[in-house]
Write a structure and sequence with these properties.
This protein is of the alpha+beta class. It contains three helices and seven strands. Strand 1 and strand 2 form a beta hairpin. The two termini are about 15 Å apart.
Length: about 100
Amino acid sequence: MRHSDLEVDSVRLCATRAGRELDLTSKEFALLSLLVQRAGELVSRALIAQHVWQVDFSSKSKNLNALVRRLRAKVDEPFPPRLIHTVRGAGYYLKQLH
């Protein structure tokens, strides 16, 4: 799957941005894969919890906040433009670039 300069390979379980391999944990990879699959769509915190942890937990969980923070540090901070965006209290989405 490809989004802008981000590529996610679900067979090899790896991701690259701008040609550089990203060192992701399995949970970071699961979240990134979900966001790329639904690029441009709001992905709810509840759906992320089900997809990444296979459980329902509070939408205010600090686990999810920490996971997104770590993923942003690897996917967004080293590369412009930032792709991962937040809709406060609702979820996250990958920005569509034109």
